[in-house]
Amino acid sequence: MLKRKIEQRLIDWKNDPEHKPLIIKGCRQCGKTYSVLDFAKKNYAHVVYLNFFENPDYASVFSGSLEPDNIVMMLSALLGKNAIFETGKTVLILDEIQDCPEARTALKFFRIDGRYDVIATGSLLGVKGYGKEPKSVPVGSETVIDMYPLDFEEFLWANGIEPPLTSILENCLSEEKPVPDALHHRMRQLLLQYAVVGGMPDAVNAFINTHRLDRVLQIQRDIVRSYKDDMIKYADKKDKSCITECFESIPRQLAKENKKFQYSLVKKGATSSKYAGSLQWIEEAGIITRCYNLSITELPLDGNSIENMFKVYMRDIGLFVSMLEDGTQYDILQGNLYGYKGAIFENLIADIFSKMGRKLYYFHKDSGLEVDFVIRYHGECTLVEVKASDGNTKSTKTILRHPEKYHVSHAIKLGDYNIGRNDQILTLPLYMAFLLKAL
C-alpha cells in the first residue's frame, strides 16, 4: 500500500468540528477512490459507497427531493444492509460525482443536516462538455481539495526513504553543506527513476513490485490512451479533434529552445481563438499545468504574470516520458538524453513544484533573457535555473547584477551536482527541488 499525503488532510478534515462535505478533485487514476475508501474504513463504523460512473442508476436516488432523509430512505431501499446510516458514525462516499450533478447540489442539504459526513470524488469536474452542470453549485457548503498523482516525496516513501533521511537533506539545505556521498548517490538514482516512472499509483506499484520498466510503460501508455478516449467521448463534438491535437503537441512544444506554447505548432494555421478552449479542457481535466511568463521579476508573481504567454507541462513526468519515443526511459536512466534533455528535466521540476501546490512562473524577454522558473522562497522573489548538464546561467547572472531593475537578489541552480554556493547563486542537486517549501 502506498502512503499518500491526502491521508493526513482527510484526518485533519474529519477532526475539524465545522467540517463541510468534502470533494477530492484530480485527474483520472491518481488514487482518489483508493485513498478515500481506505480512510473511510479506518475512521467510520459505516461506509456507504456510490460510484456514479460504474453504476449510472444510482443517479436516480437524487432525481427527486434532495432532503437527506429522503436520500437515506432511497439508499436504504436500494442497497439494503450496505446502507447503514448512524448519526456521527456514517460516511457517504459519492465517487465520480460529476456524473450526477444533482448529488453535488445535495451537498448543501447534507451540510445543513450535519448528521452524516460526505466525501465526493471528481475527475472531470467543471470540464466543458462533460455531463451537465449542477443546477446549483453548493457555494460555501463544500470544501474542495486537489489531489495529484504521487509527488516525488511520496515516491521516496514508496522506495524506503523515510522522514529521518529527509531530515538529513533538510539539514544540509539549511546549512548549505554537501549531502553525504552515499545518500547523494541514492537520491540521484531515485530522481532518475521518478523521471521515468512518475507518480500514477499503478505505475509506481508496478515499479516497486517488479522493477520491470516495460510493464510501467504499458501502464502509462494505457492511461494516456484513456485520457484521449475521454477527450473523444466527453468533449463537445466540434472540440474533439482540437483537444487531441493540443494534447499530442506537448512533446513538440517542449522540444523547442523557447518553450512558450505556440498554437501554430498544434496544427498549421491554428489560432488561439480556435484552440484556447481545447487547452483549457485538458488543464481542467488535471492532465497539464501552465507556467506563466512574468512581465517583471517581482512579487506578487501572480499579479505580474502575462495571461496569454505561457509554457505547458504534463502534470505527471512519467506520463510525459511515456509520450516520447521507445528507448527514452533507458536513455534517462543512463543519462543520455540528447535533444530532449532540457524538456525532460524542466518538466520534472514542473511536476515537483506543481504537486507541491506551487503555481508556475518563468521569465522571458525578447532580448534573450530567460529563466526556467521564478518562485517565492523565504519571502523573496527567487530565480530557479534547471540544468540537465553544467550549462551556463548567463540570464540569471545578468538579472542579479541589476537589482534596481529586476528586484531580485537570490537564485537557485538545480542540476546534477551537490550543494554549493557561488555568491548569490545557491547550487542544489535536482532532487532537492521538493524541499523548496518555505514561502
Automatic annotation (TrEMBL):
Residues 19-156 form the AAA domain. It comes from the Bacteria. The keyword Zinc does not apply. It comes from Agathobaculum hominis. One of its GO terms (molecular function) is ATP binding. Residues 229-389 form the DUF4143 domain. Keywords: ATP-binding, Nucleotide-binding. This is ATP-binding protein. It holds the Pfam family AAA_14.
